[in-house]
Amino acid sequence: FFMERKTQVKINRKKMMLAKLRKSCSCTPRKMKNIIMDFFPVLRWLPKYRCKEYIWGDIMSGLVIGIILVPQAIAYSLLAGLKPIYSLYTSFFANIIYFLMGTSRHVSVGIFSLISLMVGQVVDRELLLAGFDLNDDAPPGLGDVSLWNNSKPNTTAFNFTIGGTSVECGKECYAIGIATALTFVAGVYQVLMGIFHLGFVSMYLSESMLDGFATGASLTILTAQVKYLIGIKIPRSQGHGMLIITWINIFQNITQANLCDVITSAICIVVLVTAKELGDRYKHKLKFPLPTELVVIVVATLVSHYGNLNELYASSVSGAIPTGFIPPKVPCFDLMLRVAVDALPLAIISFAFTVSLSEMCAKKYAYTIRANQEMFAVGFCNIIPSFFHSFATSAALAKTLVKTSTGCQTQVSGVISAMVVLMVLLFLAPLFYSLQKCVLACIIIVSLRGALRKFRDVPARYHVNKVDTLVWIITMSASALISTEIGLLVGIIFSMLCIIVRTQQPRTALLGQIQNTNFYEDDLEYKNLSSIPKVKIFRFEAPLYYANRNYFLKSLYRLTDLDPNLEAARRKKYEKKEQQQLKKGDQTSANGLGMEETIVQLVPKQIDFQAIIVDCSSISFLDTTGVNTLKEIRKDYKELNISVLLACCNPSVIDSLKRGGYFGKDFGNMQELLFYSIHNAVQFARDLN
To answer: What single-letter DSSP state applies at residue 149?
Structure first.
């Protein structure tokens, strides 16, 4: 039978583009209102806020996240190579801006260990290039005096040149300058990606690749914190192979370990891990998570302060954390040029984690998000805070899960968390002066439990999909052993190569008929299939395009056990020899056989079929090479009196075949070459025979 296609209405693309342009350029009060409300989603949902229904859940989740956020912010400052005050600024501004611009109700945006690590690596590299000492206990620079009015004068000054101008600035001043410039550029990238609707970029970051990247970065984070755990002073490694170099330095200096820090770290890790395990086991009975990190920080600070651990045992402490806000400052343009390349992977990873978590929450709680608006929200969560001495942010999985489990309903909870951080900024920050850095390192390491547990999932992941497991291992290894940026690049490239290889060498099969049915399946995969006399049914499970053309032909020739080109050449060779013998008048052929015997030999015994049916149900598209390939095999097999029939083609493939001239000028042969089911093609082939 023949199915008649619907007549497609031709669209005047020029008129359509002009209409869209006219509509986008028009400015009416209603349109301006919609633009503003789309840019600030809070204006849509806040007037509809159900206070009695939502407020207590938002307050509870906001307080819990705020309590967790303060110790984590202080701890993650070690990863970023910056003072704790900057982490608190970051957490405060990110929550406020995402409240105004975000479309997810449950995502917790703020400081994130992986992003902090990437910022810290850039900061450390630029500090080294500027001639600064990366030792944490190095004296602050002269430029740091301007940060807070109550700071004591510093004695060490560093001179370097930026843009041809001599600048005098201290280590801390330069470090936060690098971080804010990096954050600003990353935010600009994200906003530009939002303007040009490039949110689809995140689709190329597969789940396996992101998991491997996070796990590899977690190993780097853990390695960077070991020196704080045991209280040794080693240089902060930079460049490729940082993980291996750091461990070599740790073992070389293990004898210098600070006993006080070792004991403190052991106690803190035991307490934190025990509390986390108990919390996970009895989470269905707990209304909100235990604030273990805050309790550990408070107790450790009191013990350190009253035990004089810094003076008596030389235990490294956080130092002075000033209160209030530093006056805003425009990020340095010269520094932006230095970190422009580093900001790109930072922007992509920040956006990818935020959107994936937003989509996860939206699916779970049955609402929708706008990925492009999320791009704007995360971008401005980086751009605006960069003027207030903050660094890059992203959504964090652990805090998001806590937020949803404690009754969060809307982003009002983010404002509550910001108020908790603000209270610490204004009043409580100096109380953390005596907090040991080893305690902060313990909090960071214990927070990596989730990422490090991914190693236990490798056997199950391998059982589900071997290729995805390979992507995970390659990305994780590159991120840990080379660098996070290289690991991200390797992961993306390797994931794409896996897709390309899958389409270049897809599954191919010969099909047999399921008994007493009109259906056909892989003869090697299923039992009790009957073959069709004189007919071969070939399935190719991928698009047919230039990259897999040769594989298509090789597979077809191998499974049918016939290469039409070789067979045609062999026949021509025998015909030529036979003609030569006939001219000589000899009835014996070149190989010593009689004419009748030679003619019999010209029909190969291995050709036991007269029709090939190509099952195109898995061929999603054809390019020019694909169409030419089908035309080529049709022509080659026709010389051997073998028909090539196509079955189960989708409309896109049919259109490609029409445009490529496969069915002739007037599509006259279409009904004899194209069939809508394999069974129809089989019946036609039988009638043909």
So the answer is: T
Do 62 and 110 lie in a common domain? yes
CB-based burial, 326-365: b 16+ in 10 Å, e otherwise: eeeeebbeebbebbeebbebbbbbbbbbbbebbbbbbeee
List all residues 6 or more positions away from 209 whose beta carbon is below 8 Å from its beta carbon: 471, 472, 475, 491, 492, 494, 495
Q: Is 373 exposed, middle or buried (0-12, 13-18, 19+ CB in 10 A)?
A: buried
| Strand stretches in 491-533, DSSP E | 508-514, 520-522, 529-530
Beta-bridge partner residues of 156:
141
Please list the residues that pair with 436 across neighbouring strands: 317
pLDDT at 147 (0 to 100): 44
Beta bridge partners of 588: 594
CA–CA gap between residue 76 and residue 529 (Å, rounded) = 62
For 535, the token pair is 């007919």
| Dihedral sign from CA coordinates of 474, 476, 478, 484 | positive
The residue out of 451, 474, 501 marking a domain boundary is 501
419 and 517 fall within a common domain:
no
CATH number for position 538: 3.30.750.24
10-residue stretch averages of pLDDT, the chain, 689 residues long: 67 77 76 88 91 87 84 84 90 94 91 88 88 61 40 42 54 90 95 84 80 87 87 78 88 90 92 86 72 85 90 84 88 91 91 86 87 91 94 87 81 92 88 86 84 87 92 92 87 90 90 90 89 92 93 93 86 79 61 52 63 93 94 92 92 91 78 89 86
159: enclosing H helix or E strand? strand 159-162
What's the confidence (pLDDT) of residue 598? 52
| Separation CA 84–CA 80 (nearest Å) | 10
Using a 10 angstrom Cβ sphere, with 0-12 exposed, 13-18 middle and 19 or more buried, the burial of residue 9 is exposed
Give the domain range for residue 471: 52-133+170-501
Token pair for residue 346? 């930072």
Tokens of 352: 């990818």
Q: How far from 515 is each of 463, 520, 559, CA to CA, in Å?
A: 32, 9, 22
Number of domains composing the chain: 2
Report which secondary-structure segment, H or E, holds 540: strand 534-540
423 and 512 together in one domain: no
Q: Which two tokens stand for residue 566?
A: 């070789």
Q: Residue 339 is encoded by which pair of tokens?
A: 């970190």
pTM (predicted TM-score):
0.78
Residues 318 and 235 in one domain: yes
Counting beta carbons within 10 angstroms of the beta carbon of residue 585, is it exposed (0 to 12), middle (13 to 18) or buried (19 or more)?
A: exposed
